[in-house]
Amino acid sequence: MILFLAGTSDARALAIQLQNQGYPLVATVVTESAAESLRAHDIPYQVGRLSLDDMTAIIQKQKMTCVIDASHPYAEEASKTAMAAAKASDIPYIRYERPEEQFTSPLITEVEGYEEAAKLAHLHKGTIMLTTGSKTLEIFTKYLLNDEIRLICRMLPNIGNMEKCDRLGIKQKDIIAIQGPFSESLNKALCEQYNVTLLITKESGKVGSVDEKMTAALQLGIPVILIKRPAIKYENFCTSFEEVTQLLGGFIHGKHEL
Predict the structure, then answer these.
(1) Residue 25 forms beta bridges with which residues?
(2) Do residues 128 and 246 touch, judged by C-beta distance below 8 A?
(3) Where do runs of H (alpha helix) occur along 21-158?
(4) What is the CA radius of gyration of the chain?
(5) CA-wise closest residue to 76 among 5, 22, 145
(6) pLDDT beyond 90 at 53
(7) C-alpha to C-alpha distance for 211 and 204, rounded to whole angstroms
(8) 35: pLDDT confidence band, cut at 50, 70 and 90?
(9) CB 91 within 8 A of CB 161
(10) What predicted TM-score, i.e. pTM, was given to this entire model?
(11) Residue 241 to residue 214: CA distance in whole angstroms
């Protein structure tokens, strides 16, 4: 049995593929909406963030023999928890992460984290579009809610996000509540509609539609602050489904049996 952290749409596609190949697994997701594709393919799942104790308990109770961490590229704590749980349980850990996209432009400024991005954007006067989700919204509102900046926040259209925006003082007219994926033309239209003069985004990979966002902004001459992925040293790091299945095959015939 495999414990599978299914943090992205491509991760859930990998879970479905592994099940079709005969690997029994239990997936974990953060939201009910993320579980829809798993439910449609009769993949057992659990909703909610897991602590180290929670994850270790699941591994022991269900006699898990491998952890596949396919959480979001920026879900740093989830990955650290998964690695620690696998190590504590003496079972293999495999990391799947969508490949990074490479961009070269004088309009792009790469930063190491959210705080650095917010501090840099604070120097900007104009309309900033934030496309980094709601999890770190407090960091950006701390620096960017002022009279010289209009902060446009683009995020998933769920009640929790809207309540968070209200609590942090983000006006309704400055919220774009929409679920992707987004085309390049839609990204351009949104930038033009709101007269965006700076874009803040993450390097979430092609599946995360970062290329459409970046291309749209660059074509319009809009500067971009690009938040790099967390610098985590992973074991058994994979960027393709094929690499994951090869590693699993190796574990089957090696020390650990799945």
Answers:
(1) 2
(2) no
(3) 36-40, 52-61, 76-89, 114-121, 137-144
(4) 20
(5) 5
(6) yes
(7) 9
(8) confident
(9) no
(10) 0.77
(11) 26
